[in-house]
Amino acid sequence: MALNTQNVNLKISAGDPRQFPGDPVAQVAFSGRSNVGKSSLINSLLGRKSLARVSSAPGKTITINFYDVDKKLYLVDLPGYGFAKRTLEDKAKWSALTDGYFTQNKNIDRLALILQLVDSRIGPTKDDEMMLDYMRQCELPYVVVATKTDKLNATEKKKNLAAIAEHPLIKGVPVIPFSALKGEGKEELWKVIFRYTGL
Questions:
Q1: Which of 70, 89, 102, 161 has the CB geometry, 3.0–4.6 Å to 4, for a possible disulfide?
Q2: Beta bridge partners of 145
Q3: What is the mean pLDDT of each run of 10 residues along the chain (199 residues)?
Q4: What does the CA dihedral 54, 55, 56, 57 come to, rounded to 10 degrees?
Q5: What are phi and psi of 99, to 5 degrees?
Q6: In sequence order, what are the residues at sequence separation of 6 or more whose Cβ sits closer than 8 angstroms to the Cβ of residue 52?
Q7: Torsion angle defined by CA atoms of residues 198, 184, 124 and 114, in that order, rounded to the nearest 10 degrees
Q8: Distance in Å from the first CA to the final CA of the chain
Q9: CB neighbours (10 Å) of residue 84?
């Protein structure tokens, strides 16, 4: 099935699970800590500059954004986690909303894949490990995207990607190097998305 990535719009920024769309289409969720490059990744995949807004203050946005791609696919931008300056109230709101996506989403059976973003420069953080462990416990399908590879030299890149791939919560899971700046990984990510969604 062909997918027109030019026919895309922000369906809703949901701040409550009751707002999640109920359309019977496949969903691919993007998970990662604040400032790991989720917005840049979504914009790169869709060939846009600012469809997904890059927050000026990491951790500022506590909504789940559903991007409707050609009425056949939702790219679901989960709120970033692990932002130190967030208040306890905001952290509780983040947890409730993100948990709601997995536990109160009437279309959770349409979730085909989670793209778990990890900063290639530092590897999985404790917050990343919590998310990876949650996905593994719940048997949710996920692939790891190692972002910001353009900020590493060839030696660092090889070493860091190998370390990420060997992490106990990642071992055996595909790790896709990605650079929004250079476009590295974009084609491979679309192949993975098509494979998991059956589009």
A1: 70
A2: 117, 176
A3: 86 93 95 91 88 58 89 94 72 82 91 98 95 94 97 97 97 96 94 95
A4: -150
A5: -60, -40
A6: 38, 39, 40, 42, 43, 65, 67, 77
A7: -20
A8: 5
A9: 7
For 170, the token pair is 């990642």
Q: Which amino acid does the sequence have at 25?
A: V
What kind of fold does domain 8-197 have according to CATH?
Rossmann fold (3.40.50)
Contact between residue 132 and residue 170 where contact means Cβ atoms under 8 Å apart: yes
Phi-psi region of 25 (alpha: psi -120 to 50; beta: other; left: phi over 0): beta
Question: 137 burial class (0-12, 13-18, 19+ CB within 10 angstroms)?
Answer: exposed
Do residues 178 and 146 touch, judged by C-beta distance below 8 A? yes
